[in-house]
Hints:
Elements: H1 11-33, H2 39-62
Amino acid sequence: xxxxxxxxxxxxxxxxxxxxxxxxxxxxxxxxxxxxxxxxxxxxxxxxxxxxxxxxxxxxxxxxxxxxxx
Length: 70
């Protein structure tokens, strides 16, 4: 019995997860670069972090690319 035989993660799941991590890292870098009241740190950075944490990372876990439809 293989260890990851029932593991449904594919290359695309890891790719979406990596893109999510990239968005999170970029969000924190943008927050660091902007001043306290700038557009960069109060508007753009939270939107990018929200996309990373609440959209891309859960999407990479939920999607199953092993089905015939994908």
